[in-house]
């Protein structure tokens, strides 16, 4: 089944002003898990439509009210590396749901079919693809041991621009930053990279071999013979072995397993797209900005890394703040109500990428002033990747 999904099921967690500072670990721990963490069983192709309007809407939804920084003038950079997160209020909003589209049929379809074609999700329907070798004997043990799956996974070379992060594992990736699935005709690493390159927000991919049923397992076909699929999944974050946790599952009595799983990333070498109204971003690597006295607010969005969410949040916050009476009371050189800079980074908990974290600030900071790395908080290790700083383009008021 081919499925198109609109990337809008974003959860915004915003920390209200004026106490906002650093990362609000408690509210992230309390956030609901994302609904999609990998390809659904029995779907052989799934693509995510990036929609700027939904990103803008999700970013704007993080605004909880008029917000201002505590500082009354511009501040020197705060280079403290440790602080206690403050208690903040939180607001949860969920976007629109998953959609799959079906086009109208040219003729009246036969019952049980889609425009006359057998639907793969029907009981005992023949499953598509299966371009890999037929493993004999047809057992999980023979599939897992099949030499070709391991030799090709170990021999795969990183496509230009990518780095291999793991090779020949028995698990595929599962996590919050999933961006789609393609089923390929061979273990084609460069084709998978091309799919990533043409997908908005994609900075990493996973290619693997999967033992799948030849018929959709149902009471009348409990244990169909297997087929071998080459699968390619796309990710909006680094792809590390720590999230290669999907080792298959049972479909009825049929056991799905995975072999030859490789990960490739270009996350460290990808510059995010410029956000309208903001200058070219500055790379802060794995350090966040943390300047509590000039911070207007923070927000977290579960899902692939997307600085446009933070830009939209900043813009909507400025739009609301500029309507406040105190906006005019500030001198032109400094305004505690105006976001002039934001930091957008991918937040990771125990090595697993969770989503985009945004910090809004009244003044601009250089990349060297991003010195905060969260580290251990209780029994969890928090870290940062893809941290970028965006300064407003002076005069480019779009609120
Ligand atoms: C299973 O097979 C029986 C006998 O051929 C048929 O009547 C029944 O509809 C089938 N059930 C399903 C779920 O396809
Ligand atoms: C990306 O950068 C981080 C931080 O510098 C580093 O730890 C990691 O190994 C890099 N990943 C790759 C694949 O180069």
SSE blueprint:
Layout: E1 2-6, E2 11-15, H1 25-30, E3 45-49, H2 52-60, E4 92-94, E5 113-114, E6 117-118, H3 140-145, H4 147-155, E7 163-169, E8 178-184, H5 189-197, E9 204-213, E10 226-235, E11 249-251, E12 254-265, E13 282-285, E14 295-302, H6 307-321, E15 341-349, E16 352-361, E17 375-377, E18 380-391
Parallel strand pairs: 1-3
Antiparallel strand pairs: 2-4, 2-14, 3-8, 5-6, 7-12, 8-10, 9-10, 9-12, 11-12, 13-18, 14-16, 15-16, 15-18, 17-18
Helix pairs in contact: 2-6
What count of helical segments does DSSP give? Answer: 6
Number of domains: 2
Bound molecules: 2-acetamido-2-deoxy-beta-D-glucopyranose
General form: elongated
Features:
single chain, 399 residues, alpha+beta, 8-stranded antiparallel beta sheet, 6 helices, 14% helix, elongated, binds 2-acetamido-2-deoxy-beta-D-glucopyranose, Apple domain-containing protein, signal
Please describe what this structure looks like.
Residues 75-99 are annotated as: Disordered. The protein has helices at 25-30, 52-60, 140-145, 147-155, 189-197, 307-321; strands at residues 2-6, 11-15, 45-49, 92-94, 113-114, 117-118, 163-169, 178-184, 204-213, 226-235, 249-251, 254-265, 282-285, 295-302, 341-349, 352-361, 375-377, 380-391. It is an alpha+beta fold. It has 2 domains: 2-86 and 277-396, no CATH class; 124-268, no CATH class. The strands form 3 sheets. Strands 1, 3, 7, 8, 9, 10, 11 and 12 form an 8-stranded mixed beta sheet that branches. Strands 2, 4, 13, 14, 15, 16, 17 and 18 form an 8-stranded antiparallel beta sheet that branches. A hairpin with a 2-residue loop joins β17 (375-377) and β18. The longest helix has 15 residues, at 307-321. The site of one 2-acetamido-2-deoxy-beta-D-glucopyranose (NAG) has 4 residues, from loops. One 2-acetamido-2-deoxy-beta-D-glucopyranose is lined by residues 123, 218-220.
